[in-house]
Automatic annotation (TrEMBL):
GO biological process: late endosome to vacuole transport via multivesicular body sorting pathway
Top-level taxon of origin: Eukaryota
Signal peptide segment: none
Subcellular location: Membrane
GO cellular component, one term: Vps55/Vps68 complex
UniProt record similarity statement: Belongs to the OB-RGRP/VPS55 family.
Topology in membrane: Multi-pass membrane protein
Major place of residence: membrane
Entry keyword set: Membrane, Transmembrane, Transmembrane helix
Residues annotated as transmembrane: 7-25, 70-89, 101-121
Name this protein carries in UniProt: Vacuolar protein sorting 55
Length: 127
């Protein structure tokens, strides 16, 4: 069971992640690092959508989970894109290297908070 302390800690980490991403944009007057926020917010959606769309059969455990695998693939793609996009922008000299580092760390904190929130507050299924 997650309590109030868990919510407070997760919100604190999420605020630090957003602060790092916003500062990576505002300190160098270049707002391209804010694209990382979009990728990390969109990243959990394929897992959620594909988890709802998969046909869970109680009698057949050996049925294929292609929909779930596709959702996990898309989520992994968005997470890697959240790391690779600032690296690509820094390589092309569109953003500074320090902005890249702040953006990657902030983005990982944001996505880690989203994953932790879903893990701590996941409802247990009863049969």
């Amino acid at each position: 069971m997650a309590g109030l302390k868990t919510i407070i800690a997760l919100s604190f980490v999420l605020a630090i992640g957003f602060l790092l991403v916003i500062l990576s944009s505002a300190l160098w007057h270049n707002f391209y690092p804010l694209l990382v926020v979009a990728t990390y917010v969109i990243a959990p959606l394929p897992n959620w959508i594909c988890g709802r769309a998969s046909n869970s059969d109680d009698f057949m455990e050996s049925s294929g989970n292609g929909v779930l695998d596709f959702g996990r693939f898309l989520t992994g793609f968005f997470v890697v894109m959240g790391i690779a996009l600032p690296a690509l922008l820094a390589h092309c000299a569109i953003i500074e290297t320090s902005a890249m580092v702040m953006s990657i760390i902030g983005g990982l904190l944001i996505y880690g908070t989203i994953i932790s929130f879903t893990m701590f507050f996941q409802e247990e299924q009863e049969f």
